[in-house]
Amino acid sequence: MEETGNVPLRKDPVPRAEETAELSESAWAIVLFCVVCGAVAGGLLPLLARLLLSLPWAPLDGPAELLTSVPEPALTLGTVAVGALGGLLLGLTAVHESLSVRVTGTHLALMIRDSTQEFAREDVGVLCRDGKQLVALAPDGREVAREQCGLPWRRLADTLGAYGWTWAEQDPYHADFRRWVPGTPGLPPGADALLRARARVREGGGGGGAADARELRGELWRLGVVVRDEGERQYWRVVDV
Q: What is the pTM of this model?
């Protein structure tokens, strides 16, 4: 995690209103981890191919034979290089998808995927952790933001508290969520259809599915329905609109 600001938080536990702290995951650490993992996976690929060919029957024996036909050390060096390149691309994608938080005494900004959500203090009643997600709740209980967060939670909580933002270790409305099944009673008109559509796009997966699920979450929010996910399951609660 990197931190920048006009005054280090450790030296000034009560920052002035105009001071800024920015918390972000270490880009080089993410990329290095992915590159190393990719290189290790690439280095193991020739061994796996030879193991497959030693079996009486094995799937993908054609590609395995083609791979092992390349002489050493070119084979291992090549697979390690390809694995490292794949890890580099994965790491850059992970950095692009990682969350950064900028906080002052009056505003909070969540930055991810080349976009920024900014909130004034009066727009946020409490911030909390829900699994691996950071959740921002409005004073009336509406959910104004929910993002995957890889930042150290204790450091994030301490920084927000130093700037006067309210932090909770768990969503204060956690007990109000109910599991959604098609035709669930109690939902506002139109919400069940949106939840059905969201379930379909989440099952499809991929970047497009994630974007569609995010958009449908926004449509449900306009109806006064807050959604949280646990695996493939959707849970919901209703707030007054």
A: 0.70
Percent of the chain with pLDDT over 70: 88
Rg (CA), the chain: 23
* CA 237/CA 153 separation, integer angstroms: 25
211 — pLDDT class (breaks 50, 70, 90)? confident
Higher pLDDT, 66 or 221: 221
Task: Give me the numbers of helices (H) and strands (E) for the chain, helices first please.
Answer: 6, 12
Each residue's pLDDT tens digit, 145-158: 998 898 999 999 99
Could you tell me the domains of the chain?
28-96 (no CATH), 99-168 (2.30.29), 177-238 (no CATH)
Average pLDDT over the chain reads: 84
Q: What is the 3-state secondary structure (H, E, C) of the chain?
A: CEEEECCCCCCCCCCCCCCCEEEECCHHHHHHHHHHHHHHHHHHHHHHHHHHHHCCCCCCHHHHHHHHCCCCCHHHHHHHHHHHHHHHHHHHHHHHHCCEEEECCCEEEEEECCEEEEEEHHHCCEEEEECCEEEEECCCCCEEEEEECCCCHHHHHHHHHHCCCCEECCCCCHHHCEECCCCCCCCCCCHHHHHHHHHHHHHHCHHHHHHHHHHHHHHHHHCCEEEEEECCEEEEEECCC
